[in-house]
Amino acid sequence: MKPFLKWAGGKYRLIDRIKAQLPPGRRLVEPFVGSGAVFLNVDYPAYLLSDSNADLINLYRVLQKEGARFVDYCREYFTPETNRGEVYYRFRSRFNGPCSGEQKAALFLYLNRHGYNGLCRYNASGKFNTPFGRYKKPYFPEKEMLFFARKARNALFVCRDFRELMAELSPGDVVYGDPPYVPLSTTADFTEYSRGGFSMEEQKKLAGLAVALAGRGIPVLLSNHDTAFVRRLYRKAQLSTFQVQRFISAKGNNRKKAAELLALFSETEG
Ligand SMILES: C[S@@+](CC[C@H](N)C(=O)[O-])C[C@H]1O[C@@H](n2cnc3c(N)ncnc32)[C@H](O)[C@@H]1O
Question: Which pLDDT value is given to residue 244?
Answer without folding.
Answer: 80
